[in-house]
Amino acid sequence: MQLDRDELSDATRDRNTPAFVLIYRNKWALLLAAIVFAVGTYALTFAMTPAYRAVVVVVPVSEDAQTGVLAALGGQLGGLGGLVGAGLGSGSITNERIAILSSRALANRFIAEHALVGVFCGADLIDCRSGPDGRAAPSEHQSNEALKLFTRRVLTVSEDKRTGLVRVSITWIDRQAAAVWANGYVDLANRELQRRAIDESNTRIEFLRDAAQKAQVVGVREAIYRLMESEVKSVMVATTRPDFAFRVVDRATVPDKSERVRPMRSLLALAGGIVGILVAFVFFAIRARRTTENENEEKNARLKAV
């Protein structure tokens, strides 16, 4: 019976074999699995479509001519200057412009102008298949899918709080298109903000014109005309300045063919090697457990026979 107890003790030790012992016993097999998985994963990356990133570096124009003139006159005219926009801080203007640069509305307009829904459909990145009834998928659905793809995977807007520089990045599978889209997106933002500034100035001019006609005091009327003159100058500046809201420091260029951002082959190969080790370890652990169970069954059978 002492022999039987010794056999059961050995079986218990085998069942509870530490992981490091299992790894040491099968170290060469684990290494081989890591190499095979890593090489296989690295080879698969050549079948993936590479993506490239084009970057535009801009600096927001913190205070345009319109704001500066109105702020100067606002102190003289008090409440009237506030009504027409005096006293707006440059920080709030900068934050607003960066928010517009990252807005869904601007992205949607860019997608429409460049017909990106069709581009994304051609790349099989959004669902453009026919519906269950055989009709084409709703255009609204396609537009929403294109917007999600563009804002989540294609466009990136980041601001360096220390330097004040803003980076607008476009990541896409076509290197030339990525550069064109990045530059075009900043140009569109400038045009949109330029249009808004002109519309706002024209609205203020109409308001001031009405206020001048109603003013009874000559001094107030003259002050209003000075404000109107500043608004006209603001319209002129906005109309003649292409980089109205964002001054381009470094325009996007076509990235080199080797400057891909996806797939990250080295990182994927490393991940593949780790997966190979885990798969091999699980395989050897299961095999060791089954071997131990079979041996225990044989020992129990011999004990019963005795």
Brief synopsis:
The protein folds into two domains: 2-48 and 263-305, no CATH class; 51-262, Bacterial polysaccharide co-polymerase-like (2-Layer Sandwich). The protein contains twelve helices and five strands.
Helix content range: 55-70%
CATH class of the largest domain: Alpha Beta
Helix and strand content put the structural class at alpha+beta
CATH topology of the largest domain: Bacterial polysaccharide co-polymerase-like
The CATH architecture classification of the largest domain is 2-Layer Sandwich
Number of strands: 5
The count of domains is: 2
General shape? elongated
Q: Termini distance? A: 10 Å
Mean pLDDT: 78
Main β sheet profile: 5 strands, antiparallel
Please work out how many helical segments DSSP would assign.
12
| Alpha-carbon Rg, integer | 34 Å
Order of helices and strands: HHHEHHHHHHEEHHEEH
Strand content: 5-15%
Q: Give start-end ranges of low-pLDDT stretches.
A: 1-16, 64-88
